[in-house]
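Quick question about two entries, pasted in order.
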Amino acid sequence: MPIIDSHHHFWDPKSGGDYGWLSGLFEPIDRVFEPADLRPSLEANAVSGTVLVQTWNDLGETWDFIGTAAETDFVAGVVGWVDLTDPDVGQTLAQLKASPNGKWLVGVRHLIQTESDPNWLLRNDALHGLRAVENAGLVYDLVPNLPQLASCVRTVEAFPNMRFVLDHISKPNIRERDFDGWSRLMRGFRAERDHVWCKLSGMVTEADWQNWTPEDLKPYVMEVLDIFGADRCMFGTDWPVCLVAGSYDRVVDALRECLEDLGESDLDKIFGANAIEAYRLPGFSFRQDG
């Protein structure tokens, strides 16, 4: 079974994008990250393919990323951005998909944690956009912090026939061991897990960057497995964001340590098969009935 890193980014802070957050503690990653920077880590960890995910709410980046996927042998799919609130969002999606590189667009997301309204996804204009994403046959990636998590549960309930992926286990405060409040909200996904997947990603940057261990992450990983099941969890590194707290290799090793009690079949699903199935990745076989 191929290994798929379901979540990583490329960026150029000087491109005009919204990269103001690359300051302070994040200043070490305030530089260009491109395919050549990631390739050695993929080869060292036998990763066959990746999902390239948007970094800011900009349609131009989506066009650029599907072009990058066409030119990069390991990028197996792109989660891009479109304006869900645009009345013509369906036409935009159709143009992206019909373009020469359109097959690489496998999903869409919006940085809802940057919106002042925690229920932004439930607005009528956003719901119209989500219906367009569903009609286009694409995944919608949910990227909440805790304040937006309840609205994400309501959103997946409202679209029972649509595929959703929850990024970064919704970013619990692992550093402060905030578990119960996060878990209570996350359990709302249990009844929806037939069409919702969860990325075991982004955890190290929510832990103590200097002192975290796999044991700090394991309770959260085990809770996600209990809620979603091994059939609906997927490996992702959130590279290069993860680099502020640990190397690519360390992130991979930590997740493997957290999952050490699982059988080979479940590990194959989490480290590859589930991402292939959820995103319908071009170039990889997947179950059409999944």
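Here is the second entry:
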Amino acid sequence: MNFVTFRTDSDPTPRLGAVIDGAIVTLPGDMEALCTRGAAGFAAAAKEAAAAPASARIPLGSARLLPVVPRPGKIICLGLNYADHAAEGGNQRPDYPSFFLRGASSLVAHGAAIRQPRVSSQLDFEAELAVVIGKTSRHLSEADALEAVAGYACFNDATLRDYQRKTAQWTIGKNFDATGALGPWLVPASDLPPGAAGLKIESRLNGTVMQSSNTARMLFPVAETLCLLTEALTLEPGDVIVMGTPAGVGYARKPPVWMKAGDTIEIEIEGIGVLSNPVENEAQP
């Protein structure tokens, strides 16, 4: 069973829900608290949702989904984590991950618009696997690293390429408002292969496949990435780790392909689902 954070027109308060038969059943607590309960907690929540009467179900179309974790404490992203993507940008295979941070204000939910900012037309797409942490962790080992993972979601690390290249640090091009799409829901780690390995990952722009790869091709898989991160810092429940993108992004094409207002971009990961977002222009002041 998949789990969402959502709200409705009649109740703007973010709620936790389980998705069942095209509807949402509201659950107590929030996503961060659920993530701390591990596989047993997800199983109990699924059982509770399945037992709810039909009258308690909210049609998916009547709810507004939010990013699965609306305000993560940390969003840590990896660059150049697929060899073919590194090569298409003229980069060497890295010996250590290119880590960078996103802020929570850059997030946008499934179905909501990714915003084309007024200052740039170079809005690119990046299909990525998102890892949601469920356990406070430091100095993880390969043997226990995956125990820290609560679940997985899709991510679109939409990037303003000209701003990314204004400085040696990528931060500014990766943090425009409403450019980091996270969703549509959280799939518990127990429902997927360990480390979400071996899953097809794809992006489609207006229905045309742009990227198509497999999470088995990550240079730094989930367990190794968590070990490297926790050498330096503490991961906490609700933190999101975004695992990098394969080849096929827009800037590497000739001519480049940028997202623009009126487009629809989809990220699909096998076993997780489809994250879909329209693209619209930033409103004029």
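Reply: The radius of gyration is 18 Å. The longest strand covers residues 11-20. Hope that helps.
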